[in-house]
Amino acid sequence: MTMRGLSGKNVLISGGTSGIGEAAARRFLEEGARVFVCGLDRVEDVVAALSPLGKISGTTCDVSHEDDVERLVAEATAALGGVDVLINNAGTGWREPFLEITPEHWDTIMAVNLRGMFLVGQAVSRLMVRAGTRGSIVNMSSTNGLGGEEDYAHYNASKGGVLLLTKTMAVELGRHGIRVNAVCPGYISTPLNAGIEADLGPDFVAAYQRDHIPLGRAGQAAEVAAAYAFLASDDASFVHGAELVIDGGQLAIM
Ligand SMILES: NC(=O)c1ccc[n+]([C@@H]2O[C@H](COP(=O)([O-])OP(=O)(O)OC[C@H]3O[C@@H](n4cnc5c(N)ncnc54)[C@H](O)[C@@H]3O)[C@@H](O)[C@H]2O)c1
């Protein structure tokens, strides 16, 4: 498993302490990159578990707070010496009918998924521009950024926002040699979805996977990590402002 140009690179992964972000930390270490993770919790556990694979460290951080993000970027820079790749992955979400969403819940999801993506993306981009780093940024959107899944109005809106943030970053940062892309995973088995699955029950989940996903199963976090690795690598050297869908064919259904 090798993507061109990742070995020896410095990679910052937000939300790298669980699910897709943790799988990404593992994948980048396997590619020979040096990794710095942040998350709300589990930093020490993930660093301890993945340390045998290579150089990894991290910090606890809430990406929706600018002070935390400033500290995150300073700590990552101190640990790695610079940032070549940002995997802008942290996010949250839950099911809630549109008619019942409170302004507080709306604000929470927007603060983490969209404001947090902006804050970390801007802070790392400023660092890259200052250092003259021809870096790569991959933002986490979702298939929910491309279609309006029922009971996810706040989440869908935040992920749609990530796609236009990504395109605008690509337009403005391309001239600095910084590539910016997004990934749009569909249904992936992670702790985030485990809670939702527990609410819906195993029969609903099995029927959903059978009826809505042509490959007939949920994706694995490592399958999204592979897309992150590709988009961050030199193998994607002319891929810019794009969104890569990883959904087992879910969006192909009419
Ligand atoms: N699981 C899916 O089916 C799926 C599909 C499409 C997109 N996504 C997106 O993938 C990303 C990762 O999700 P996951 O399924 O791996 O979930 P997860 O809950 O397993 O992991 C989420 C990670 O983000 C971190 N995080 C959450 N809020 C944060 C905050 N305010 N500040 C810093 N870190 C924060 C958590 O600590 C954790 O490390 C999210 O952006 C999610 O929206 C997930």
From TrEMBL:
Pfam families: adh_short_C2. InterPro entries: NAD(P)-bd_dom_sf, Sc_DH/Rdtase_CS, SDR_fam. GO terms for molecular function: oxidoreductase activity. PROSITE patterns: ADH_SHORT (PS00061). It comes from the Bacteria. Keywords: Oxidoreductase. Belongs to the short-chain dehydrogenases/reductases (SDR) family. This is SDR family oxidoreductase. It comes from Actinomadura litoris.
